[in-house]
Amino acid sequence: MRVKALKIPCSGWKGVILMSNIMLKEIKLSASPLAFFFIPFGFMVFLPGYPILCGAFFVTLGIFQSFQTAREANDIVFSALLPVAKKDVVKGKYIFVCLIEICSVILMMIGTAVRMTALADSPVYRENALMNANLFALGMAFVIFGLFNLIFVGGFFKTAYKIGRPYVIYIIVAFIVIGLAETLHHIPGLEALNAFGTDHIGLQVVLLISGMLIFVLLTLLAYNRACNDFEKIDL
Predict the structure, then answer these.
(1) Which domain holds residue 109?
(2) pTM here?
């Protein structure tokens, strides 16, 4: 079925209002409650003896549920019938995804700040063999979110329907990254990656900024590819 609809140019204040309306549609109609339920999993940074980067994975699991719910409700076809360009449909999805991810990251940052200050010398964390909550961990969380945006969200817009294959690929890649992050600080010479408190703070800041840059680059790359792929789909 070929979908044709009147497209309104999205620029200036009209563009801002239009994108705001698209976001309201995403939040009120398309989003699964699980997407919001998993946001507090950012506080998993407080769990000792647990791979804390799994918190980022659970956040993406909630977003995946939103895509699944939206697919079953023919949300993409409905969105394409709105008087907006197809690239704005893609933009709305990516803004929603990034909104959920950033909300969770803020909670991770709060939890990490507490662990790096008030709980820096807590025996339950000092004796933990797994990754410590520090700026490197936050940087790796950004990397995981960036991979999700590239592999899953970008993969979804290749068909605007299939979600299983891109999500399975994302799961495999995400847990390889989590396993690598958990392993690195055990390698001689890389102990600084598991710094406590403000130890090696210069290195920690560089690693955090690097993770954030990777997130931005992967997301922009994924968004541009998704726009091109979605334009080719005959809904």
Answers:
(1) 13-232
(2) 0.92
